[in-house]
Amino acid sequence: MRPDFLLTSSLAKEIYQSLEGLPLIDWHNHLSWRDLSADRREENLTRLWVAPDPYKHRAMRILGVPEEKITGPSSDWERFQAWSAVLPQLVGNPLYHWSQLELSRFFHIQEDLTPESAERIWEQTKEQLQEPGYSARGLLRQMGVEYAAPCVTPGEEIEDWPAIPGVVPSFRGDDLLHPPQELWRKLTRLAGHPLRSLEDLRQGIIPLLDALHQRGCRFADHALDGDFLYCPARSMDPVRMTFGEQPPPPSSQLSSAILRLLLEEYARRHWTVQLHLGALRHTSTRLRKVAGPAGGYAGIGQGWNLQELVALLDDAEQSPQGLPECLLYPLNPADCPPLANLSGAFPGEGLPGKVQLGPAWWWCDHLQGIRACLEASAAYGVLSVSLGMTTDSRSLLSFVRHEYYRRVLSSWLAEKAERGEFPSRRETLVDLATKLSYGNIKEHLRRKER
Fold it and tell me: What is the C-alpha separation between 267 and 315, in angstroms, rounded?
């Protein structure tokens, strides 16, 4: 990997050099708590690098690799061979860059992974993976990860999980909008009485959120896909919303009321809520059966109804607790400008960037997507309050994407300055790049501990 990778000018290189030593803060990812708790060590690259990554699985399927070599019964070596044959064909796909970065930064491998080099790389990395720095937590330390927040669901029991320095939970609250039977029983137990109303349900949710808060949780997120319909508060009477011994059947009215309740509780604890908008998750029934709900086959939806989103934020703003800080993640790139624009519709008193566009997410966290997100934040919001980059990944090696983001950011800022659109003073550009790479999210977390 060349030192000037993605850096398009001498100014871009200068900006990036100022960011190289900064720690990483990753406030939303899907790392395994069990692996981190056990400080798990994988024995080969397939188990560490290929098996847990739906991005790679998707690319392999597109190129016609049989499923048995992706998620099926093939040996680890056969699956790695399949991936080594695919990677050279991915020029133009972010996986091509990410994979090179991962091999270079973690394993100091500069040659390309190809069918010809696969066995050498396989053997070299197997030896390295036995070294002390290659356990789950060791890999985080290698990348200078200061703060990582893996998602946990309301059904997970976190009380007995060991404390891990620099690792805290982030709350994935989707299951609360349509509670399954087992979760309903847990909430009933936490409330100490049957759940007959929304306020009873709140009494079951409060201890759950309090326990997470005590473990350091400061972020929650909800996936509001295209099939989610929001019913404004004025359209229903929550007093009449009553339940029985069984969890209530799913309905838009119920999920909307519970979501408002949750936003109140997040605001009470000064958490930041992340709304992931517009994923098209139900595509191939066949692949859902084979690979599960996160198997890499989801699509980009038409976006989320902007009027419904505004109604949700407006209802939350008018609640007794007010609107929590909010990051909006559109999966459809066309939604970046209107969502960045909403930062001006729901500002905070004395609080910069209370509602803002989140980082480029999922299918958009590549060079073009990151640039589009930066452009929208700058043109339709205020770029200088952006919280920067988080991986939203299941892979321990994906933290190199922070370097990728910082390189893209450095070149984008330099190009803007060289065209006269941004100030050309190096110190000004470095200060902005530092805020977007580390400073803003560091201050965001510091503020939540006051």
Answer: 13
Q: What is the pLDDT of residue 190?
A: 96
- 47, with CB counted inside 10 A (0-12, 13-18, 19+), is middle
Count CB neighbours of 182 within 10 A: 11
Q: How far is the C-alpha of 202 from the C-alpha of 335, rounded, in Å?
A: 33
Give SS3 for 62.
Answer: helix
Question: What is the structure's pLDDT at 239?
Answer: 52
Identity of the amino acid at 367: L
Amino acid at 9: S
Position 243 scores a pLDDT of 86
Phi-psi map region of 39: left, alpha, beta (phi>0 left; psi -120 to 50 alpha): left
Whether the pLDDT of residue 240 is over 70: the answer is no
Tell me the pLDDT tens digit for each residue of 251-301. Answer: 899 999 999 999 999 999 999 999 999 999 989 999 999 898 888 999 999
- Look up residue 113 and give its two tokens: 């992974």
How far is Cα 321 from Cα 211, in angstroms, rounded to an integer? 20
Query: Residue 17 and residue 20: Cα distance in Å, rounded?
Result: 5
Mean pLDDT of 129-150: 96
The half-sphere exposure of 398 on its side-chain side, counting CA atoms within 13 A, is 26
214 by Cβ neighbours in 10 Å (0-12 / 13-18 / 19+) ranks as exposed
Convert the chain into a string of H (helix), E (strand) and C (coil): CCCCCCCCCHHHHHHHHCCCCCCEEEEEECCCHHHHHHCCCCCCHHHHHHCCCHHHHHHHHHCCCCHHHCCCCCCHHHHHHHHHHHHHHCCCCHHHHHHHHHHHHHHCCCCCCCCCCHHHHHHHHHHHCCCHHHCHHHHHHHCCEEEEEEEECCCCCCCCCCCECCECCEEECHHHHCCCHHHHHHHHHHHCCCCCEHHHHHHHHHHHHHHHHHCCCCEEEEEECCCCCCCCHHHCCHHHCECCCCCCCCCHHHHHHHHHHHHHHHHHCCCEEEEEECEECCCCHHHHHHHCCCCCCCEECCCCCHHHHHHHHHHHHCCCCCCCEEEEEECCHHHHHHHHHHHHCCCECCECCCEEECCCCHHHCCHHHHHHHHHHHHHHCCHHHCCCCCCCCCCHHHHHHHHHHHHHHHHHHHHHHHCCCCCCCHHHHHHHHHHHHHHHHHHHHHHHCC
pTM above 0.90, yes or no: yes
Closest CA to 121 of 78, 84, 151: 84
